[in-house]
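User: Hey, quick favor. My workstation is busy. Could you predict this chain's structure for me?
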Amino acid sequence: MPSFATEVKNELARYIPEESCCRNAELAALLRMGATITFGLRHTFGLNFTTENAAVARKTLQLLKLEGHGLRTEITVSRSRRLKKHNSYAVRVMPEPAVADLLEHLGFLHDESLNMESDRELLKKNCCRAAYLRGAFLGGGSVNRPEASYHLELVTGNYGFGNLLYTLMRRMMFPVGFTDRKEDYIVYLKEGDAVIDFLAMLRADKSVEAFEIARNLKEVREQVNRLVNCETANLQKTVDAAGRQVADIRRLAAREGGLEALPKKLRETAEARLARPDASIVELGELLGVSKSGMNHRLRKLHAMALAAEGEKHS
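Assistant: No problem, here it is.
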């Protein structure tokens, strides 16, 4: 069964923005996440993009063909020999002069100098900012199934890029966090509503619907568990209290005169408790026609008398 993150990426990979500016922004973030620039003869550039998701590889290839007209591309698959390791998909753009035009178009190249961190020129419009974050998620994102915990993250090995994503999401009013893990930098969300809003912004509509259904079921289960735990705790308190009351009454029964020496109301209460050791205070009160507070008052008196009798026994 594929992970929820894989399902989200597969859905997003099928969405191609209509506007060229949005395709550029998404492609730029994808390449930031998973591509390296190669160098060929006569100062030409190439690109190598790698991912473990076949749909992401296909979308990257599609965006490259749409925005980099005439580029020579190929896609290869490497099968891992390690247990439970996923296949690796590599999209390769051959070094040629046209790649420099694409890099300039995306803002990766300025006056023959590489710009490895900032894509602010691509992020002037709201639609482009959403597309950029969609590319970042496709290239290095993950999200937990809501049955487990609410957690979405974007992972990059570049601090400047990570900080750009963090700043962008903060300006878009997401409750985002930023941390590091070994050699990676993590931009993350941990609130269910924020995760839903983020996925909706990326255009993962079916995944949002699945997330909301799963979250609702999770919240119902948690509420039921809380009620069951509360009821269990109350039941345990009732059992413990009844056990103490029975012990008190047996102490009084063992003394000279036994229960017959008790006042009538207390004797009736003691006999009712011995006959119904599993009954609640309310049930005992209904049996004797006494309110809950009245029953508690009688049982406290019996407890005090049992403590006094125990004291007399040891004096």
